[in-house]
Amino acid sequence: MMEPRKDVKVSVADAVGRRAEGKTDRSVKREFRKGPARSKSGACRRNFLRGNREISRLLVRCKADEPRSEGQGRNAEMNDREKSDGLVVPKKSPNETEAMEGSSPTKRNSGQRSTDRTQSRSEVSRELDRVREAVRRHDGKKFTALLHHITPERLSQSYRKLKRNAARGVDGVSWEQYGESLEENIQTLCEQIHRGAYRAAPSRRTYIAKSDGSLRALGIATIEDKIVQGAVAEVLNAIYEEVFYGFCYGFRPKRGPHDALDALVMAIEHRKVNWIMDADIRGFFDAVDHVWMQKMIEHQIGDRRLVRLIMKWVKAGVMEEGKWIASEQGTPQGAVISPLLANIYLYHAFDQWAHAWRRRQARGEVIIVRYADDFVVGFEHREDAERFHEELRERLSKFALELHPEKTRIIEFGRYAAERRERGGKGKPETFTFLGFQHICTERRDGKYAVLRKTDRRRLTQKLHALKAELAKRRHEPIPKQGQWLAAVIRGFDQYHAVPGNLAALRTFRRALMRLWWQSLRRRSQRSRLNAARSKRLIDRWIPPARILHPWPDARFNGKTLRRSRMR
Q1: Rounded Cα–Cα distance for residues 401 and 277 (Å)
Q2: pLDDT tens per residue across span 37-59
């Protein structure tokens, strides 16, 4: 007769005791795996993780209706890097919010196969799963053989993930033209990569307007460079996603700007944050030092062929007005692999240093949220903020980087900012802008402190100016065609800006856009018959009403970090 299996439970005290004896969390998990009743399912792992210090503490706080936010104090135990299992605790968790944020599960049952779901989304291959597992088991491991992961199949997947209407590079080849002989082109391209005969083409230089009125230089790569960069980025992501810290949100798989915004709001509302340093690195993509970039890549990547391939793109140069310009520093902003290279550079230049600083030198709590070269740091004490600011300048100067003097400032912001400034006769608390939203100290209807997010006025004005110019070009198109285009514009605007508390900005955008459309239609003819009644019918037909699309920050944040899925 079969005996019932005994439940294996590891208490918090046992886990802490084993850690005090010199055993890590991984050794504890290995001892757990050695048991005879180990299940292949994830149930036992989940039962074990319930005894984990981070999980038990988060569940207790959840029951007390006190959701944790981004940031942490000086306790070293709170900064230990934990292993990830599903949407529970990531391996790199330098603070409480990162432990809550989690990452998607990478472990799967041995019987599951990696299959393509769509052209833009595919399961990670088992070869890259083994790379991830090697990173977890051997922290700091250097990979000396990675180029063999660049296969014709991975290159084909990279081609299908590209946008079909993307801008063309200097060769003028489009996505459709390259796909006419896709199999032959991919096979030739793969052979060139492994023979060392592949040559990176220079990027085509173009400019787009920024919110402050200046121009941002972009580099448009050729279709073949985009394909190879996408395949290499997929291989490198398998390594660096296990290395990057949780407060890094920019251009990472299954992370977006709204995840960073939610983490920041949760941090300010639920942690001891009294001062905010809103920082921006001046001309980051144009100031990246090539020598430092190569050293940082070689710190984790020991495959010289892959490093040489990456540096070909970095040093390929740009073509502007038919002239080739050498690239002595910087990375082409707009290339497929540029966001990953930027995260690697800032991981070594900023993330590691900032994480160590707040653990060893900060007197109070420090929270960090970084999205690409834009980051916000919250402090409990003003002295910590000023000291961090000065030491950060020295740190970045070693890597040829500089804080933007006009976009970097320290302000009083937080739960008690309004009360303290009122006592000092300083007026309302200052505001700061992060990822296109202005953050404002306010109160809810029940009197509790909250952070209000509104669309940045400069970004809204710039968007309306661009739409006015576009409406002038489309003035004589059929009205239904214009209405369809305007409806798509509003849907795209709402997809990003329709956050709770921002309904007034959505309505302002619609009123301004409807007025611009009405003026454009009136100028189609000197005998325009567009009266108020007809204008109202057109607006009701084509302009969707303003409504909030995103959930509250705590709802989405808790849903992602406590494994509550909307699909269940």
Answers
A1: 17
A2: 444 444 433 333 333 333 333 33
